Q: What sequence folds into this?
């Protein structure tokens, strides 16, 4: 038996109901989100403007285009979620030329054109109603219980956002004084994309921006259209619809792959709430499976993840021969084009999945049939077309968006576990860099065991050889293998290689749930719950009895509890094989009980960590530091400067280092550019390409590197440390500086014109006299 394509839902009496009952959970989500936003300081006007623009300017035209090009029979939820993703993609691609010609509001031309065309053209009018395309089977409907389950997950994520993120990121001082370290940088990039195209690094004048910046273009477009402050969009609004659509798309993709709606709900829960077992004390997330709770702190990952799922949804249809025609390839092309600058890490993951399809189909040709049990050709034409699109997207991203720069990403096998070894052994950076590869490889092995616990169901897919019969499943597994392989083989000064694993997380979760569904067909499946309970109990017991307190001396104390659990799996497999069918039984019948026991036991190992981390995950917001990162008056001074200057004006500042008390300058200082929406001569240089290109994993930290252009920095700082008419004139003459925004410094009072002062911040105009 193979994993089959989705079939019409007829089991539930509410599945095909076209009344208003299906909109009740949607309304509940809207009410919860609106209440949370009002409670956390967002005005009703901003909520209405944001909802109106995203609904009419992004969702409606995106859904119309999706229906016209996909020509499928997916549920209304699928159409809306995928349509929103497509709408974001087209919005960004439309905003880029609009901003480049200096008319950002031309971004409204695309939704107006699309809506007008679908009203005026008779052949397009039918797409205003949800229904099957020509030549397709009847419409499928999401069961009401499924809608409520997904609504519960979304409401949980909204509540988590409200308590964990909104609470630490206020819209006014002092609530905005201690943000997560990257949030002011995101805000600075948003301001840059609002006023300039092509963008540069706003905190270092003239520095090329080698980064994923399309999400900031999306928020900039929204700010232009609605008039909402960029900070409100970044800290409160923009990620909400993306988060909701992501939940729905994971569910519908799992439904499409497995043919079961319960698998869609299960895949959502595994994607968001399953975590690696932790059998030690004194630290957390040593062997991380990553988390989807970076939705606010990594907006680039959030948009990239959303754009990737519809691509996979369309590719699965083509690979299974469920989809024909060119419309789907147009969707793949547009979404992939948006991925090049939204989060290009998804392109190699998609490429890896498609390559796996090609390789397996070529070298396992005798065993290959498609989902309709018909022989397949040796090379998959859809996979070849997909590979071509991904290669083109990667080339564009690398050489156009990123300017040929690698931003610190290098080939460095086992690099992800070297910091873990330093934490385990209490070693310094130099000792970690010189450490033997063998204990690092051992830690990598433990990491892979932990990942196997989170996605144990994948073993069910492999054991039943379903992967050979379903190219769609091959695609998912190839994406997952790419994410895990990137963590094992790549390194980055700030551990950004983990975003590959986070990007693969939904697809590994869907494959795992599909494997569990396959195990459900085995004899003795009713006993699986006892294996899961046994695994959870063993994980708790082993942690209490054998779990070490970190740091430890050597690999063995940390590895011992994991080795014990692996040994238990081996014993359980042997017992299941001994108690199973005789050797005369078919091979799949002998293998089934063993696979069931192993999958259930591994799943049980992850249950305790899932309950402690998944039920109440914390955001990436750091504990409030003893010194506020954003001073009093920063927001008011920055916005005054924004309102009284030109977007092309250059600002100088005396603030470069976060006040964290380090021996070196932590140059992740970005609030001047963030609140002024202006380019700064030199503020914080930590994320600039000129800094990252000089940093290597486990070498000198990029946070400890000095600014690359010391002459510029010296000229900048001289104006504040030794203020004089000559030093002021030099910045004006040589660098085109027109304004100065200072923190805790009034020395310029006699050499520049004070224009505004609030709290600890002052704004001066240079050369005004």
A:
């Amino acid at each position: 038996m193979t994993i089959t394509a989705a079939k019409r839902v007829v089991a539930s009496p509410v599945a095909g109901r076209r009344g208003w009952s299906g909109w009740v959970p949607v309304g509940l989500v809207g009410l919860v989100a609106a209440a949370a936003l009002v409670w956390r300081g967002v005005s009703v006007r901003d909520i209405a403007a944001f909802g109106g623009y995203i609904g009419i300017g992004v969702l409606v035209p995106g859904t119309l285009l999706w229906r016209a090009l996909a020509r499928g029979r997916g549920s209304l939820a699928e159409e809306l979620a995928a349509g929103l993703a497509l709408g974001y993609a087209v919005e960004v691609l439309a905003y880029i030329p609009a901003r480049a010609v200096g008319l950002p509001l031309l971004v409204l031309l695309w939704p107006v054109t699309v809506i007008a065309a679908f009203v005026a053209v008779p052949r397009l009018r039918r797409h205003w109603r949800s229904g099957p395309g020509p030549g397709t089977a009847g419409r499928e409907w999401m069961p009401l219980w499924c809608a409520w389950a997904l609504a519960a997950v979304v409401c949980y994520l909204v509540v988590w956002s409200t308590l964990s993120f909104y609470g630490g990121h206020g819209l006014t001082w002092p609530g905005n004084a201690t943000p997560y370290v990257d949030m002011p940088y995101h805000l600075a990039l948003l301001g840059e994309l609002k006023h300039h195209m092509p963008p540069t690094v706003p905190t270092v004048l003239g520095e090329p921006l080698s980064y994923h910046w399309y999400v900031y273009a999306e928020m900039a477009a929204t700010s232009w259209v609605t008039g909402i402050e960029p900070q409100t969009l970044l800290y409160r609004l923009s990620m909400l619809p993306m988060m909701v659509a992501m939940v729905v798309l994971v569910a519908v993709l799992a439904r499409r792959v497995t043919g079961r709606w319960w698998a869609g709900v299960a895949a959502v829960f595994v994607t968001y709430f399953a975590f690696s077992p932790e059998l030690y004390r004194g630290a957390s997330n040593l062997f991380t499976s990553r988390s989807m709770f970076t939705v606010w702190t990594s907006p680039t990952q959030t948009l990239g993840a959303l754009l990737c799922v519809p691509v996979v949804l369309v590719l699965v249809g083509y690979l299974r021969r469920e989809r024909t025609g060119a419309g789907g390839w147009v969707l793949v092309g547009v979404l992939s084009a948006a991925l090049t600058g939204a989060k290009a890490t998804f392109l190699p993951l998609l490429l890896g999945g498609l390559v796996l399809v090609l390789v397996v189909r070529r070298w396992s040709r005798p065993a290959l049939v498609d989902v309709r049990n018909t022989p397949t050709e040796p090379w998959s034409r859809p996979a070849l077309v997909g590979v071509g699109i991904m290669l083109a997207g990667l080339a564009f991203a690398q050489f156009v968006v990123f300017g040929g720069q690698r931003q610190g990403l290098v080939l460095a096998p086992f690099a992800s576990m070297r910091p873990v070894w330093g934490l385990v052994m209490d070693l310094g950076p130099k000792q970690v860099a010189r450490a033997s590869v063998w204990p690092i490889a051992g830690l990598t092995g433990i990491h892979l065991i932990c990942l196997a616990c989170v996605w144990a169901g994948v073993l069910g897919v492999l054991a039943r050889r379903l992967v050979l019969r379903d190219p769609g499943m091959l695609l998912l597994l190839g994406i997952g293998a790419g994410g895990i392989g990137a963590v094992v083989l790549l390194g980055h000064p700030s551990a950004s290689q983990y975003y590959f694993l986070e990007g693969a997380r939904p697809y590994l979760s869907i494959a795992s749930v599909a494997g569990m569904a396959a195990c459900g067909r085995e004899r003795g499946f009713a006993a699986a719950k006892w294996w899961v309970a046994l695994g959870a109990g063993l994980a708790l017991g082993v942690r209490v009895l054998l779990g070490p307190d970190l740091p430890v001396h050597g690999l063995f104390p940390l590895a011992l509890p994991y080795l014990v659990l692996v040994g238990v799996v081996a014993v359980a497999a042997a017992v299941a094989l001994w108690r199973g069918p005789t050797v005369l039984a078919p091979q799949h019948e002998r293998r089934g009980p063993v696979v069931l026991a192993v999958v259930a036991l591994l799943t049980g190992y992850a249950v305790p960590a899932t309950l402690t981390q998944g039920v109440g995950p914390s955001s990436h917001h750091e504990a409030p530091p003893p010194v506020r990162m954003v001073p009093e008056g920063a927001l008011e001074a920055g916005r005054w400067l924004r309102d009284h200057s030109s977007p092309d004006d250059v600002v100088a500042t005396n603030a470069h280092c976060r006040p964290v008390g380090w021996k070196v300058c932590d140059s992740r200082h970005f609030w001047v550019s963030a609140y002024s929406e202006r380019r700064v001569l030199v503020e914080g240089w930590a994320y600039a390409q000129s800094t990252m290109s000089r940093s290597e994993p486990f070498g000198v930290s990029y946070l400890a590197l000095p600014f690359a252009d010391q002459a510029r920095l010296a000229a900048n700082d001289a104006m504040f440390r030794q203020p004089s008419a000559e030093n002021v004139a030099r910045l004006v003459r040589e660098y085109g500086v027109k304004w100065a925004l200072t923190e805790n410094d009034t020395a310029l009072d006699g050499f520049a014109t004070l224009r505004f002062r609030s709290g600890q911040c002052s704004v001066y105009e240079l050369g005004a006299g």
Remarks:
- Strands lie at 410-411, 490-491, 650-653, 679-680, 737-743, 753-758, 761-765.
- The mean pLDDT is 88.
